[in-house]
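May I ask for a single protein's sequence together with how it folds?
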Amino acid sequence: MEILSPEECNEFLLFLNKKNRRGDTKNQKLFKLLASGVSQDIDIKLYGEKSSNALHALSSRLHYSLIDFIASKSFQREASDELEIFKLILAARILFEHKKYKIAFKTLDKAEKQALELDLYSILTEIYHTKVQYAHLNKKASFTETINASNLNLKLFTQEQQLNMVYATIKRDLKKQEAISIEQIITSAFGAFDINLDASLSYKSLFQLLNISATASKLQSNFYESMPFMTQLYAIISEKEHQVDKHLFYHIEILNLMAIASFRNKKFKTSQHFTEKMEVEMAKQNNKYHTRFLEKLYLNKGLLLNYTNKPNEAIALLKGFTKQSLDIELTLVMCYFQQQEFNNAYYIIKSFNHSDAWYEKKNGWIWVVKKCIIEILVLIELDKLDLVLSRLKTFNIKYSKKLNSIGEHRVVRFIKLVAVYYESPKEVTSPKFHDIVEKSFEWIGTEKEDIFIMSFYAWLKSKMEGTNIYDTTLRLVTKQ
């Protein structure tokens, strides 16, 4: 039931109430039990006795009612271009069945025009299938032109299908633990399917490639190596400037990805440029996508403010985001932590009252690892001994093996050093501890190192040097 908000849960109960023909409301009772986390002896709670068959039947009916509700709500909420085109196709087919050929062809032409503007090849396949089927009845259109248009779209649709296979290949290869760059993986995948990486690719396809690159960079905490390739992709996308307005959603996504990649590479002015451009695009078409991208905009702005020596402005901005956002809340924790406002940081951390498995499903594994690390550091600063030891033990059991398996040895070593510091804080300034730190990390240079990895290390360095956490952080990330 995690996919429904509390408001949507109430809407679903009303939906069930209208759907129920009898006074029996066991489907509503079952939903409430499941929504509250009950998983044991549900049949007894519903029927007063063991009744697995009845529960199975009721669960099936509830399952299909939930699907019906989600689909109905999606159609009410989603005023997408694709949905409008599907409506036109359906209307045209009904008109053909009733032999209203003139209006049917006119409706189908409108659907074709809209689908062509958006490069919707799969939908165009349906349109041309219908057009060819009734082409002999169309006196105003050339039969040959209809066939040629259909064949051209078929080639483009086939290319799109091949691209889907390319993306699947890239995602599969990214899961392998071999040391290979994202650019090599992508180039190899394109070569295997004989597709050129150039402006002939659709806007959506180029966005997908950029998104895959950014995702891989995030997983590997290595935006430095992927940045040249992402810049190359962005240059190709820029050649399609005339298509921006009809692909506005993907365009804003692309600007956001470039802003993030630039920030992670500590190119703050470049990131600021992409963020400002993103905000301008969000205002287009009567703020069509403003709400959808507002969280990402706040996050980009907040991070830039924080790392350009405007921490108070960053905190004020992030606190001003009124909707719930795990990314913004964790970023706020980081900002408070760097300002040594540990109680404020801990107050937010305590609000993360779901399991790590729940958060991983909701926001990804990397978010959970960051949350666990910063929680340990905050607890150390607050000197909560039992909790520190418990969190350290849990972290090593849950995450050390996986971190090592993907090559993130530095994170594991960092946690070990954190444990050493907590057990013997006075030793942190000794030459022996400095030597251990030097041997534990293989730094790849300020320019190449990821900003978030440097931020965690800054805390340890501040302890070693007896300096302020935030000042140490800025000194590290801005040092060229």
User: Anything to note?
Assistant: The chain has 25 helices and no strands. The radius of gyration is 28 Å.
